[in-house]
Amino acid sequence: MRLNSYDEWSSLKEVIVGSATNYAARVRDLSFDMFISDNLTGARGYYPSIRTSRDDASTESPERVSFRQRLADELVEDVEGMAAALTSLGIKVLRPLEPEAVDRGVTTPAWSAPVTPPLNVRDNTLILGDEIIETPPMLRARYFETKFLAPVFQEYFLQGARWTTMPRPMLTDHSFDPGNVVNAAPNIEVPLAPRPSPYDVGLEMLIDGANALRFGRDLIVNVSNANHALAVDWLERHLEGRFRVHRMDRLTQSHIDSVIVALRPGLLLLRSEGVRDYLPEALRSWDVIVAPTPALEDYPRYENGDPIPPSPYIDLNLLSIDEETVMVNDACKTLIRTLEDHKLTVVPVRHRHRRLFGGGFHCFTLDTVRAGGAEDYLG
Prior knowledge:
Elements (H helix, E strand, L loop, with lengths): L11 E6 L7 E4 L1 H6 L27 E4 L2 H20 L3 E3 L11 E2 L4 E2 L11 E4 L2 E4 L15 H9 L3 E4 L46 E4 L2 E6 L2 H14 L4 E6 L10 E5 L2 E4 L16 E4 L28 E4 L2 E5 L3 H9 L3 E5 L4 H4 L7 E6 L9
């Protein structure tokens, strides 16, 4: 089919599902520390703050936090189970290339980093109608992640899709906004002694596709720092006359798909009632389901103090199959009951280690063909 994806809820026809193969380690460097946080819970990403973390971090030698093989194997099992569940629903599932078992790394003139597999494929690409937009990555280890999707993108291009790449950042220490007082979410920390580089260009546009939600011809985007603001400037100019871009200031540090979920026209799932105040005026009149508060005991415990990046609300990161059907983590019994009480059909699928590896069903997928079009939902 031709690329056609304008919203988050109309009947899903084709989708890219990420891959966890050879996901052996997480990489901690300045770009990761600046990225991980959770504004609405008041937690700093369940990691030590930048000020209390290691003092010897450098852009040249990022710290590797290895995963135990059993947990990595179980992640692969769960992702493959999700892909099989989508196929069983009659949805065409596309997959990225897989990285080699031997990590050759990513090297640019300014820094080096290991490679992160293309698991959370939602993050570095934004699909708007008939256009693929590769967004400027915020994490160095994911700089070339969209290249694993190139064969899929190429096929859609040959079928008539537009294919655009936003300007690629240099991603030096001085590329990141440490948190200006006007736009920054209050939990963004100032990095310790950012190192100068001969490749510094100042603040750059950085944003993930998961900062945005699509509502037909409208796009709402979370803007929490100057990097996001520059990227949204670009989007507004690029999309002028085709889409309307609405900014939400400081809702959370970056991704919003575990904070706001558009279930269908007129119905939202929100992390808390307070989220409504951040929404564009036209969305504040929509009906709302407030998600039940997750309990920490609902999540697996890990040995050796494994760091847990995402918030406990990660399971709001669900995937809509159509306006009546959603794919939800089978461990979330209270969330499932809440959605069923609102007459939604739930497809439960296993995903055990979401708080260790990060990402949910929305993160793991990139919907490329849905039945909806460029409707005007916000007036």
